[in-house]
Amino acid sequence: MEAMTSIHDIPVTLTDGTETTMADWAGHLVMVVNVASRCGLTPQYEGLQRLFEDYQDRGFFVIGVPCNQFMGQEPGTDAEICTFAQEKYDVTFPLLAKTDVNGENEHPLYTELKRFGEGGDIEWNFEKFLINADGETIARFGPRMDPEDDEVTSVIEDNLPV
Predict the structure, then answer these.
(1) What is the DSSP letter of 7?
(2) Pfam families given for it (predicted)?
(3) Would you write out the chain's pLDDT as a tens digit for each of its 162 residues?
(4) In what order do the strands lie in the sheet with 137-141?
(5) DSSP state at residue 71
(6) DSSP 6
(7) Element (H, E) at 126
């Protein structure tokens, strides 16, 4: 069996063009969620921002990953997406550059995330993954699962590094 790449080694690009790796969030509990601006689930940005604010002092981050693969519901540029999230939902958590989460051009981050559990493609916008401080994917929640649902917050609280 081939050794898996550490999630922390995976390169990512922020919406402002800054290139980095997931190692920027090593030692933290991270929720990675594919986001879209024109989806019926877009109001989940509010709950994601509240989670980030509530738990950031205890080592928790939310990382939004804009994706236009689901009925073209994220059509804007990276700058437009970032402006929308900040102005409409007061988002202060990091957003990555728009990327594919499924298919032949899927980002390596999603290739790794989708190995968790039974695996499988991302179903829709706002699918959520939790990565622990050691870089292991520990939970996957479907798109319609409210980010502030007790099932989600209990996993967060049980895995906060601080």
Answers:
(1) G
(2) GSHPx (PF00255)
(3) 344 568 999 999 999 999 999 999 999 999 999 999 999 999 999 999 999 999 999 999 999 999 999 999 999 999 999 999 999 999 999 999 999 999 999 999 999 999 998 889 999 999 999 999 999 999 999 999 999 999 999 999 999 998
(4) 60-66, 29-35, 128-131, 137-141
(5) T
(6) P
(7) none
- Domain topology for 7-159: Glutaredoxin (3.40.30)
User: By three-state DSSP, how is residue 155 classified?
Assistant: helix
Distance CA 12, CA 120 (A): 21
End-to-end C-alpha distance for the chain, whole angstroms: 34
21, 31, 67, 73: CA torsion to nearest 10: -160
Whether 39 is catalytic is yes
Residue ranges per structural domain of the chain: 7-159
Whole-angstrom Cα distance, residue 125 to residue 78?
A: 16
Bridge partner residues of 19 (DSSP): 13
Phi, psi of 142 (to 5 degrees): -65, 165
Query: For tokens 């980030």, what's the residue?
Result: 52
Catalytic pick among 26, 39, 133, 160: 39
